[in-house]
Amino acid sequence: MKPREIKTGVYSAGAVDWDRRLFDSRIPLPDGTSYNSHLIRGSEATALVDTVDDTMAGVLLDNLDRLGIKDIDYVIANHAEQDHSGSLPCVLDKFPRAKLLTTEKCKGLLIDLLGIKPEVFTTVADGETISLGDRTLEFVHASWVHWPETMLTYLKEEKILFSCDLFGSHLATTDLYVRDEGRVYEAAKRYYAEIMMPFRTIIKKHLERLNGYDIDIIVPSHGPFYSEPGFILNAYRDWVAGEPANMVVLPYISMHGSTREMVRHLVGALVERGVSVQQFDLSVTDLGKLAMSLVDAATIVIGAPTVLAGAHPAVAYAAILANALRPKVRFASIIGSYGWGGKTVEQISGLISNLKVEVLEPVLCKGLPGEGDLKALDGLADGIVGKHKEAGIIK
Ligand code: FEO
After folding, report:
1. Are 360 and 333 in contact (CB under 8 A)?
2. Does residue 325 have a pLDDT over 90?
3. Does 20 contact ligand 1 (Cβ within 6 A)?
4. What is the DSSP secondary-structure string of 62-110?
5. Tens-place pLDDT, residues 223-264
6. Cβ 222 under 6 angstroms from ligand 1
7. Which atom, in ligand 1's list, is nearest to the CA of 164?
8. Residue nearest to atom 1 of ligand 1 (CA)
9. Ligand 1 lined by 79 (C-beta under 6 Å)
10. Contact at 8 Å (CB) between 70 and 32?
């Protein structure tokens, strides 16, 4: 994609990666992604905000050529992760006069990850500004809007917030700005669930701080830009701090049908009692969808058959993932079938220790669920409804 002007003298110069299907060797990218990089021409100095993945360095360098850039004064690294920093070595080679501006922590990471020479860096403090002549950039340290070193950059005169990974979406598109709100909402929620949710407590504080900034455009480092910042700010406020929904997420796997029968019965019992359910067969599910469902759910029930004396490995993986994502679920339980014994409950309980949940009595059955097992599942459904009522989730 050729460079495009966001405001006079402010250009989008990054790359769209239509074909990438996996991030961090674990996150599915059904819609590709983009690496947004921005060139700002001031009356006295020129700045580049973030670079692109090293696989797309050629696109960025071509775009800078197209813009006629012969010299860059400042390269700003909001984040050390390689999808934004990977092209820094090429950019610094091509523009050797440029100072690399970033946080102290990011400097350390960029030296470790990319071998960038220490003398190239100028570290910037939280709230520090630099002048480009007729334009001013303010640096807003915002740790854990993905990694501990992350920062945002605010272009004061144009009221543009370059928000790094925060508010991003893995979405390859020709749209510079949000056009299809439904599509971007889905992609941004998936991104939040997979990348930002573990840090929601600190992100809540960053959102409060951003209330003090007059923002016309939010420009994240992935996906389209927000010309109506309220769209994504309100979504984040809801995802980060909104009350959980009267909903159960039920990831499960079944080897010979017994656990599936338990899932079918429990889902029916919950729906009869007015609780919505999102169930995921882990043998085929898109884990991004599972992560998204955890943004809102009040309860997670894990359906696990016992195999080799413990939980099925696919369920163990999903439990580890849910534990790492730290969703705002309040209650949890485990259901599943076993043949002759094992430690499924103990194992799964140990894998979700990060979740601040009340654990409801698990329901395990030997072989196919019998009448007593189905009654126990009805009891679990009653228990979930009771807990949702006590917590004010069901009014
Ligand atoms: Fe888009 Fe944390 O990198």
Report:
1. yes
2. yes
3. no
4. HHHHHTT----SEEE-S--SHHHHTTHHHHHHH-TT-EEEE-HHHHHHH
5. 999 999 999 999 999 999 999 999 999 999 999 999 999 999
6. yes
7. 1
8. 165
9. yes
10. no
Instruction: Assign 3-class secondary structure to 306-337.
Output: EECCEECHHHHHHHHHHHHHCCCCCEEEEEEE
Q: Is the CB of 169 under 6 A from ligand 1?
A: no
Of all atoms in ligand 1, which is nearest to the CA of residue 147? 2
Q: Which H, E and C letters describe 232-297, residue by residue?
A: HHHHHHHHHHCCCEEEEEEEECCCCCHHHHHHHHHHHHHHHCCCEEEEEECCCCCHHHHHHHHHHE
- Cβ-proximal residues to 122 (8 Å cutoff; 6+ apart), any chain: 99, 100, 101
Residue 109 tokens read as: 């990471």
Q: Is the CB of 83 under 6 A from ligand 1?
A: yes
**Each residue of 81-120: pLDDT tens digit?**
999 999 999 999 999 999 999 999 999 999 999 999 999 9
Q: Which atom of ligand 1 is the closest one to the Cα of 150?
A: 2
Q: Is 17 in the pocket of ligand 1 (CB under 6 A)?
A: no
pLDDT at residue 395, as a whole number: 86
**Is the CB of residue 146 below 6 angstroms from any atom belonging to ligand 1?**
yes
**pLDDT, tens digit (0-9, with 9 covering 90-100), for 284-316:** 999 999 999 999 999 999 999 999 999 999 999
Asked whether 27 and 288 are in contact (CB, 8 A), the reply is yes
